[in-house]
Structure formats: C-alpha cells, structure tokens
Design brief:
Length: 336
C-alpha cells in the first residue's frame, strides 16, 4: 500500500510536507521551476524587508517634494508613481511572475520588527497573488527598560496589524527566545496568526581580530540545529492541538523530516540543504519519507504526525529539561 503523504498547512492542502523555505533560491524563477519539478509542495519567497519599504517610501516622498515645487499642478499624477522602480515593485512583480510560472502555492514573506506604515504593504502582496503570507519578526530586544511583556505585546500588535491588512492565511516566523513559549504562541494565534514557523534562524555577528571589525558570515545549518525547534514543536503540538506548525532550521535529511513530523509539525521548510545538494534533493526527500512510512506500516503522514508530542506521558520526560540528568550520565567524554 502506498503511504498517503498529504498534509494541510493554514488551510493549504499539500501533497506532502516538504516546503522550500524563504531564501534567495525561491526568488529566482528558474530555480523555483526546478523546485516545482523536483516536487516541492509549496515555496516561501525571500523576504521583503521593512527597511526596503521604508527606504522606498522616503525616496518617493523626497521625489514628490522636489518635483512639486516646479510643477505644482502635476501633484495629482504622483500617487501613480508611488514605489516606482522600487524593491517593493520588484517584489510584487516576482510574486506575479512566480504565480504565472508554477502551480504550487506561493507564500510571500515580510520581514520586519516595528508596527509602522510599512505593514499596510501586506495588502499589496496579497493583491499580487500570494497564496499566504509569512511574517518574519526579527526583533533584537536591547532596551533594559522594556519588559518581556512589552516585547510580546509589540509582536502581537504587529500580527494584528498585518492580519487586518489581508485575508489570505498569515504565518508568523519567530525565534526561540521567549520565557513562556506556549503562552506566547497561543496569544499569537489569538492575535490572528493562522500558523507559526518554528524557528527563525537568528544570525549572530563575529569579530575579525585582524581588522577588529564585525563580520556577518552566513553558515548553513546541520541536523544538530534541529533540536531546538524539535523540542518546542513537540511541546506546542501538545498544547495547541489544531494549530498549523511549520518546522524550520537544521532539516537536512529524510530522518530530520520524519522527526519533525513525529513531534507534530504539519510541514517542514528547507533552505540549507537546497544550497548544498540542489533543488533535486526534494525528490529524494519525498521518496525517503514514503519509504520510511511504508517500511513501518504507517498509512499516512497524518497517522504518525504528533504521535511523539509532549502531550503523551511516555514522551514527557524527554521534553522536561531534555532528560538532562540522563544525558549527563550517558555522556562519554572524548579522550584528550
Ligand atoms: C541564504 C539564505 C537566505 C535566507 N533568507 C531568508 C529570508 O529572506 N527570510 C526568511 O524568513 N528566512 C530566510 N532564511 C532562513 C530560511 O528560511 C530558514 O528558515 C533557515 O535557513 C533554516 O532552515 P535550513 O536549516 O533548512 O537552512 C534564509 C536562509 C538562507 C540560507
């Protein structure tokens, strides 16, 4: 019997749970087609950044002011020139081109941190044809006067604002650093999120000691990077039974995908492995997932999804402090 790999994510019915994560590969039409040919279930486009939108808005404003002094009567034409030749325009064009080129769902991505005017541009991404929107909130809290509650409210306000601007499904991609992840997650859903992407991979600066400058090199993940999202998806699935949860960070192999599904992910999002092995790796991952299920006589992804989440007593200890004591006892120190 062939295992049924289908899954649902924020109302999108997908043939299997492997999605191309937000990254420049999906911003390239040829690559997007190759991903579709390899069988990817959906694709998240690279993010449009708050800074890009704000920058374009400022440029347009300056352009209007200068021009209007000479040709006051021409002011009425300017609204049509808004965002001319901007990052935003290119992004909207790409959504349209992507929708025309592939038939898989295309998820647009907005990346920002402040609840400002840029948020209303979410409407434009929907109008351009995006099937859903992923909001990546990348906020580094550095102000000692701001409490955890202030920061969380800030996220929630952003989610509410974006949700008001669109009617397509909205997912929120966040990092792992919250004092009470389950509580915050449930408030994100209350604020209007239809799904969560767990987790955003934060990039940290390093220092070049020769030049004493900060460097920002992006390194690709390994399967070890999966453990943080693995644990939290397992806990969240236990608490939020019907929430749409996407796993990302460190998913490199079929085994990684299976593990994320076992703890309760609805879909898995991959980026690094696409860079390492090319888009064609997707078909290997799909075949691998099917074989894994069939060899163990699972009928479907749905049947195994969440079967190892934290709700079940047998698995609870692994989530509680990750069996900390046991790990320490079993640790075999390398010979030095
Ligand atoms: C080159 C590169 C660019 C990325 N750009 C974005 C982006 O624009 N927006 C975003 O939300 N995530 C971005 N990501 C993060 C990925 O979507 C993904 O969440 C992360 O890489 C973890 O998945 P992985 O372990 O499969 O690489 C990027 C990742 C890579 C490798």
């Amino acid at each position: 019997m062939t295992a049924d790999l289908s899954t649902a994510y924020m109302g999108l019915q997908l043939p299997h749970p492997i999605i191309a994560a937000a990254c420049p590969l999906t911003g390239d039409l040829d690559m997007l087609r190759r991903l579709e040919d390899a069988g990817v279930a959906a694709a998240v486009l690279p993010s449009l950044f708050e800074e890009q939108i704000e920058h374009d808005e400022m440029e347009n404003h300056r352009f209007r002011e200068t021009y209007a002094e000479a040709f006051a009567e021409a002011m009425t034409y300017f609204p049509e020139m808004d965002e001319y030749n901007s990052g935003l325009d290119k992004y909207l064009d790409h959504i349209q081109a992507a929708k025309a080129s592939v038939s898989i769902p295309v998820i647009a991505s907005l990346n920002g941190s402040t609840p400002g005017g840029w948020v209303r541009y979410a409407t434009r991404l929907q109008e351009a044809g995006a099937d859903a929107l992923e909001l990546n909130v990348y906020l580094v809290a550095q102000d000692s006067q701001k409490t955890a509650d202030d920061i969380e409210r800030h996220y929630l306000e952003l989610v509410r604002m974006v949700k008001e601007a669109i009617s397509i499904p909205l997912s929120v991609k966040i990092g792992p650093y919250f004092s009470s992840m389950p509580n915050f997650a449930s408030r994100l859903f209350d604020a209007g999120a239809d799904g969560m992407v767990i987790f955003n991979r934060y990039l940290y600066p390093d220092i070049n000691l020769d030049t004493r400058e900060f460097t920002t090199e992006l390194t690709l993940t390994t399967s070890d990077d999966m453990r943080v999202p693995l644990r939290w998806i397992g806990i969240l699935r236990g608490e939020l039974l019907s929430a749409s949860l996407a796993a990302t960070s460190g998913i490199n192999t079929t085994s990684d995908i299976v593990k994320m599904l076992l703890v309760g992910a609805d879909v898995t999002m991959i980026a690094g492995v696409l860079y390492k092995k090319g888009p064609e790796v997707v078909s290997e991952l799909i075949t691998g997932l099917r074989s894994w299920l069939e060899e163990r006589e699972y009928e479907s992804v749905r049947q195994m999804k969440g079967s190892m989440c934290a709700r079940f007593a047998a698995y609870r200890p692994a989530y509680d402090r990750a069996n900390y004591m046991e790990m320490l006892v079993n640790f075999a120190a390398p010979d030095v």
